[in-house]
Amino acid sequence: MALLEIVDISKGFAATAAVDRVSLAVEEGEFFALLGPSGCGKTTLLRLIAGFETPDRGRILIDGVEINAVPPYARPVNMMFQSYALFPHLDVAGNVAFGLKQEGMERRRRAARVAEMLALVQMSDYARRRPHELSGGQKQRVALARALARMPKLLLLDEPLAALDRKLREETRLELKGIQERLGTTFLVVTHDQEEALGMASRVAVMNRGTLVQTGTPADIYERPNSRFVADFVGAVNLFEGEPVIADGASCLAVAGVEQPVPLPAANAPAPVALAVRPEKLLLSRQPPPGLALAARVQSIDYQGGQSTVHLQTPAGRKLRAQLANAAAQGLARGDAVWASWSPDDAVVLTR
Amino acid sequence: MIGLGRWGRRALIGLPFLWLAVFFLLPLLFVAAISFAESADSIPPFKPLVSATAAGLQSNATLANYRELAQGCLCAYANSLGNAALATLLCLVIGYPIALAIARAPGVWRHLLMFMVMLPFWTSFLIRVYAWIALLQPSGLINRLLIASGLIGAPLPLLYNGFSVELGLVYSYLPFMILPLYGSLARLDLSLVEAAADLGAPPWRAFLGVVLPLTLPGIAAGALLVFIPAVGEFVIPDLLGGPDTLMIGKLLWQEFFDNVDWPAASAVAMALVAAVVLPLLAAQRLLARTGAA
Amino acid sequence: MSRPGGGAFRVSALALGFAFLYLPIAVLVAYSFNGSRLVTIWGGFSTRWYGALAVDDGFRDAALTSLEIGVMAASAALVIGTCAGLAMNRFARFRGRALFGFMLMAPLVVPEVILGLSLLLLFVAAQRWLGWPASRGVVTVTIAHATFTSCFVAVLVRAQLAGFDRSLEEAALDLGARPFAVLWRITLPAISPALVSGWLLAFTMSLDDLVVASFVSGPSATTLPMAVYSSVRIGVTPEINALATVFLAIVFTMVALAGWAMARQERRRVAAL
């Protein structure tokens, strides 16, 4: 039995459906990510689970028990708010102890638990400080400690890394993973940053416009997207959209900007609409390779330290993107004429 | 202001500063001075503090006024402080739910509701107090309704006593409590209340533990805006009060207009100032700390 | 946050609160149309009290006096209060700032009887030593009103300045405007809501003041509140109800006009975008 089960949940505001018939299950001990662009309904879904909104239809179950009618203060769920929502009139220790006080935990145990939590997030020295004296990263740790203090079955995190600068984001990502593994608590993260989701979570659900588009491991989502939306939203992609045609006895796609029809991999699904090729799977060479190859000219090279992104354009105007290690990108210059190709196994057929 | 220059700056500060110093501070010093004067049958009705006689300058200062004060009716002071304190408490208890309801209302409604709270304030205060007389009389609307509904047999004495004075005070000063309370509540970050609920606090606990402490500045501002003026209130005890509801404001008025005893009135004024100076300084310190006016 | 129980509580709090606030007003309006002179008897619908009010010389003269004082006091308060608000907002440190702050706040809360008495003593002493004012009346009341209402104006101006974007002034200076021109053309227009509401507030408070006016006025100048007060002292005068209703109607109309004007301005602004 899954820890969290969301069954056919819908929630609308005014005329729009923020969440439209979403069902998913999160297993105990998972680090689960809800990924999607802003406005896709992920935050609404989070608030439904926390209890700040009531669903129009559907059920939410924790450990098999339906909690639709249970108010937020009685749910075994705690949330780390995007704005941290630290109580300005309490110090750090007071904030962390707040939930324990509501539980009725007696003073000595409470103090011990607070100390334990502060040590977990490495904020033990800041117990007496007030929220306004803390930096953004420090506030976040306190918010995390506070949300974990009651040892909830499920911890909800609303855009936990959004307010941090890049370096801090990476460090915090690792720390969050570490803490989750140590405690074994089930984490459900909501984010619009696909790097975050793929990097932290063991399973990811992609949402768009209120519906769940694809659920799977980060590798599933990245390597085998099930739609143009997922292919495009998660990571960069070369998307070849076109009409299915038969050429030389093989199924192909007639793609705008590409002279020959693009052959589809042998085992293909009915009604294909697009072919997705990740930039790192695109091979560039000076001589035309055997099989399908597209002639293109180098437009620009983005040097990114360990790798380079090469932007290309075909004579017909179609833009391509390749990701190469620097060694391979050496020798390429703006205006060079190259041939772009890929292995058939590296291309994904999309039916929607 | 950038580039305004020394004289521009001096003018900007100087104009209001001088005006208030001359027409607010200086007069208070006069009150202090006259409180030591001897009342007389002249115009103005007091002997000058210092008069020139054949023997040189002679001081006519006296402590008689203060002695009279101490021996006289201290009940007026007790009444004033007590009534004002009770009124402040009632305004808080009544005003808080109203301010809360307005702060939680959807955006468009909020301005409309605050406007409706302030609207009575824009119509004549005097006449509204006077309207309560009609309502509270033995043959007034309230008594008639109570009798007609069978709740009481004979009219209740609702007028010219402590009850009517208290009612008048609460009625007049309620908007002054609601306004700062609303300001504090509107600025409250709602995610803090959600966080409290998320951490296990039922609504009443979330209110006591989070909302109330964070609206303390608003409560303090409202309390000051009600208490201090209420202590020296004149119109309400005069129109709605009775013989045993004498308050300082009325005492001062009587000394001044009825007894034509300006020095005595000044002494009463000084006592009143003493009664409010501590809350006043506390108010200044509190407002400086929260950084708002 | 949606909490069904909470909603009912809130609505009833509002309903009771407003019923309390508006009960006397409803009574005043209702009885202004009462044919009978007594509140205990309803003598049918009648506008006789409005008629009586219209021909009452005493009230009319008092009203005119009050209006005259109100306009002058509010205008003076606007100048003084705006300067004070600007000074407190822009100059973080100057000699006497603490005292200045105190003088701006104290009149807001000091009981009116003290304000009135103290100013009267000032005027008496001034007459004795400087020969001015020769007699107390419109001028002294105006000065008194301007003094305590200017503090309210200062509060409003400061609040509005708090949200004002200084870079607008910097841009104007950069484009060659002199400091005074910046003040006149950029800053003051930007805080005009505070200036308008400040003037209106000062005007209303001046019109409504009984205590201070009673102390500092003279035989020649009876303000409307003073006339109402002495009338109330004597006995029941239903004309007062009519007067209150007229007041209410005027305020309502003014506010409705102001609201309509602001809405129109907002529509124009949006259309221009």
Euclidean distance between termini CA atoms of chain C: 34 Å
Strand content of chain A: 25-35%
Characterize the main sheet of chain A.
Answer: 6 strands, mixed
Which term fits the overall shape of chain A?
elongated
Strand and helix order of chain C? HHHHHHHHHHHH
- Overall pLDDT score of chain A: 89
- Helicity range of chain C: over 70%
Look at the structure and give the mean pLDDT of chain C: 85
- Total strand count of chain C, please? 0
Strands of chain A, total number: 20
Unreliable stretches of chain A (pLDDT < 50, length at least 5) are none
CATH fold name of the largest domain in chain A: Rossmann fold
So, the CATH homologous superfamily of chain C?
MetI-like
The main β sheet of chain C shows up as: none
Q: What is the CATH top level name of the largest domain in chain A?
A: Alpha Beta
Number of helices of chain C: 12
CATH architecture of chain C: Orthogonal Bundle
Overall description:
The complex is a heterotrimer of chains A (352), B (293) and C (273). By secondary structure, chain A is α+β, with helices and mostly antiparallel strands. Chain A has two domains: 225 residues, P-loop containing nucleotide triphosphate hydrolases (Rossmann fold, 3-Layer(aba) Sandwich), CATH 3.40.50; 115 residues, Beta Barrel (OB fold (Dihydrolipoamide Acetyltransferase, E2P)), CATH 2.40.50.100. Chain A contains nine helices and 20 strands. Chain A has a six-stranded mixed sheet with strand order 6-7-8-3-9-10, sandwiched between helices. In chain A, β4 and β5 form a beta hairpin. The radius of gyration of chain A is 24 Å and the shape is elongated. Chain B is globular. The mean pLDDT of chain B is 85. A two-stranded antiparallel ribbon of chain B has the order 1-2. In chain B, a hairpin with a 2-residue loop joins β1 and β2. Chain B is built from 13 helices and two strands, in the order αββαααααααααααα. Chain B starts with a helix and ends with a helix. The longest helix of chain B is centred in the N-terminal third of the chain and has 30 residues. Chain B has a single domain, classed as MetI-like fold (Orthogonal Bundle). In chain B, α1 packs across α13, α2 crosses α13 and α8 packs antiparallel against α9. Chain C is mainly alpha-helical. Chain C has twelve helices and no strands. Chain C has one domain: MetI-like (MetI-like fold), CATH 1.10.3720.10. The model of chain C has no long low-confidence stretch (mean pLDDT 85). Classes of the chains: A alpha+beta (352), B mainly alpha (293), C mainly alpha (273). Chains B and C meet through α1, α3, α4, α5 and α7 of B and α1, α3, α4, α5 and α6 of C.
